[in-house]
Design a protein that fits this description.
By secondary structure, the protein is an all-alpha fold. It has two domains: about 55 residues, Arc Repressor Mutant, subunit A (Orthogonal Bundle); about 120 residues, Tetracycline Repressor, domain 2, CATH 1.10.357.10. It is about 70% helix and about 0% strand. It has nine helices and no strands. The protein is elongated, with a radius of gyration of 19 Å.
């Protein structure tokens, strides 16, 4: 059994605390995918993770707390933004990354479960919103650099560009059930780049 005797928020990268967090969040993710939010039990998560029950209750306290930390960990471990020197290529890299994540055999179902939970739990919804703000902030400089290079107009709203690119990919994952293939990602990136060049996302001049 992995036991953690440190207090909440004390993280030693590569140490026991990091291993405990990794094991607990993986176990929580597995339970969420298998049973949904209502079926996640902290004691069961502790058993699956091989850690003491008191550790899970002390560090996370509630299931929404676990989900919030899971999303924080996903944001921390996501790939950094591309810097290809081309606006269109940067967007293509982002679209490919989103598609790869959403079609991953673990990450795809996990995102579905978290999003479904967020529709009925305010804490999970807030954590999900933080996750996407973090990812938008990570990739927005791609748009800012494109403005500096003269590829898109001044005043282009970088966050809105990232949202526009992401939307059709999430639509296929969550609503239509249509294939989420490489061609879909490429078209989303190309359409977003074309719209940005035309000034569709300009909010100030």
């Amino acid at each position: 059994m992995i036991e953690d005797t440190s207090g909440p928020g004390t993280v030693r990268p590569g140490g026991r605390t990091a291993r405990v967090r990794e094991a607990v969040l993986r176990a929580a993710g597995d339970a969420l995918v298998e049973r949904g939010f209502g079926g996640v039990d902290l004691a069961e998560v502790a058993r699956r993770a091989g850690v003491g029950k008191t550790t899970v209750y002390r560090r996370w306290g509630t299931v929404p707390g676990l989900v919030a930390d899971m999303l924080a960990e996903m944001a921390e471990s996501s790939q950094p933004r591309a810097d290809t020197g081309s606006f269109a290529a940067d967007l293509a890299a982002l679209a490919a990354l989103i598609r790869e994540t959403l079609t991953d055999e673990r990450q795809g179902p996990l995102f579905k479960a978290v999003i479904a939970t967020a529709t009925g739990d305010a804490g999970t919804a807030a954590a999900l919103h933080r996750f996407y703000r973090t990812r938008i902030e990570e990739w927005s400089p791609c748009v800012d650099r494109a403005v500096d290079r003269g590829e898109v107009p001044e005043g282009t709203d970088a966050a809105e560009v990232i949202r526009f690119l992401s939307a059709p990919l999430y639509y296929r994952l969550l609503a239509s059930g249509d294939p989420l293939d490489a061609g879909t990602a490429q078209r989303a990136a190309a359409a977003t780049a074309a719209a940005a060049r035309e000034g569709v996302f300009v909010t100030a001049r």
